[in-house]
Design a protein that fits this description.
9 helices, 8-stranded mixed sheet, D-Amino Acid Oxidase, Chain A, domain 2, FAD/NAD(P)-binding domain, 3-stranded antiparallel sheet, binds flavin-adenine dinucleotide, 2 domains, alpha+beta, 25% helix
């Protein structure tokens, strides 16, 4: 939707086709909210993209009466030596970002709802926060349509056929031809690209998130930040209780290895005992007051590349096909800038953003 919107600002005829009706719970973006951090531990190359996205999220907010971004701050906490936290602090220094490094005592004084033996080191980024993801998608969709883009929902693309000078796209009832095609089909990208001659090692993987009743005096978004928690038992991320909905938490690592095909994946929360147990494990160890009644749970899909870096590139053989995917569970915060990059590639054939780590021909995707 973001790419559709930024393309619709150009003098182009834009058609968006989606198998569902975005926002929806069938892909990777469901579940209301997403975190945005600026000092990202996934790699220095992401920091300028996170900063640009934050500007663009703020800009998007000016076009919507719905809330797009809530500046809750983000706390990263965990055990010393996890690597991720140290890398994040290093990145913040390199980019002179406004973060505070905190001792255990400082964290517990500020957020009395935090505890546990893995609480050894923390840093707080006050400018980070929560993107209201579904509101953002609805806003991009509305803006794209008001600029004249067209949208087909509940319309799976069955096949893509590169032909001389254009691309032919087949859905159940129609055939479309386009000068250029942007492919952003999330967990389906692997299958789509295979049919276009690229057998990439990208792996859809099931993850669960859930909302638990929490003590709002400790964990409401007025009192508690979004968080990344690195415990020795696993990596977690979560959201303070937004307007009384409860603390939402998910586990970053630890997938269901046997449930990794997008087609036929069991998307019901609770099908596996660990769906809820994993999440409660972290809450009971670190945020006891948020380990209340289960309000809601759902499953979602990560689409992982072997190096967990994204794919944003032109198809190596068909230069009128562009791809963005493999977001490996950390892509949402970059939604605006990815739209901007794809628009640059489609309209100018190049972008000023550094996307060299996201090449579709890098060895890691084929080994
Ligand atoms: C539980 C969870 C928590 C996350 N938390 C964060 C976070 O806090 N911060 C962050 O930055 N990122 C986070 N992420 C990652 C982020 O949500 C994803 O990286 C992002 O949503 C991926 O977007 P996408 O457009 O590639 O995929 P999707 O959102 O799945 O979109 C793909 C779209 O393609 C459509 N499609 C698929 N196949 C076809 C077809 N054949 N024809 C037509 N349409 C098709 C689908 O219907 C869908 O609408 C999280 C992910 C999960 C699962």
């Amino acid at each position: 939707m973001s790419t559709g919107y930024y393309l619709s600002q150009k003098d182009l005829k834009v058609l968006m086709i989606d198998a569902h009706d975005p926002p929806h719970p069938h892909g990777s973006h469901g579940g209301d909210t997403r975190l945005i951090r600026h000092a990202v531990g996934e790699g220095l190359q992401y920091i300028p993209l996170a900063l640009r996205s934050q500007e663009m999220w703020n800009e998007l907010q000016t076009h919507s009466n719905d809330e797009i971004f809530r500046q809750t701050g983000i706390l990263n906490f965990g055990y010393k030596g996890s690597g991720f936290l140290e890398k994040t602090i290093e990145g913040a220094k390199d980019y002179d970002l406004d973060i505070e490094t905190l001792t255990v005592e400082e964290m517990q004084k500020r957020w009395p709802g935090l505890h546990g033996e893995d609480l050894e080191i923390g840093y707080y980024e006050k400018k980070g926060g929560v993107i209201m993801g579904e509101n953002a998608i609805r806003t991009y969709r509305r803006l794209a349509l008001s600029n004249g883009a067209e949208l087909l929902v509940d319309t799976p693309v069955n096949s893509i056929h590169p032909e001389t000078g254009h691309v032919r796209i087949e859905t159940e009832h129609d055939t479309f031809t386009a000068d250029r095609l942007v492919l952003t089909s999330g967990a389906q990208n692997g299958l789509m690209l295979k049919a276009l001659g690229l057998d990439l090692k990208i792996q859809p993987s099931r993850r669960t998130i859930a909302w638990f009743e929490a003590d709002d005096n400790l964990y409401s978004s007025e009192h508690f930040p979004g968080f990344i928690g690195r415990s020795r038992n696993g990596s977690y991320y979560g959201f303070s209780s937004i307007d009384g909905t409860g603390v939402k938490i998910g586990r970053y690592d630890g997938s269901d290895e046997d449930d990794t095909e997008p087609e036929g994946m069991d998307r019901n929360f609770g099908s596996f005992e660990k769906d809820e147990a994993y999440l409660r494990e972290f809450l009971s160890a670190h945020m006891r007051g948020a380990n209340g009644k289960l309000n809601k749970g759902l499953s979602c899909i990560f689409t992982n590349t072997p190096d967990e870096d994204f794919i944003i590139d032109q198809h190596p053989e068909y230069d009128n096909i562009y791809v963005a995917g493999g977001f490996s569970g950390h892509g949402f915060k970059y939604v605006p800038v990815v739209g901007e990059i794809l628009t640059d590639l489609v309209t100018k054939g190049e972008t000023g953003h550094d996307i060299s780590s996201f090449s579709i021909t890098r060895d890691e995707l084929y080994e």
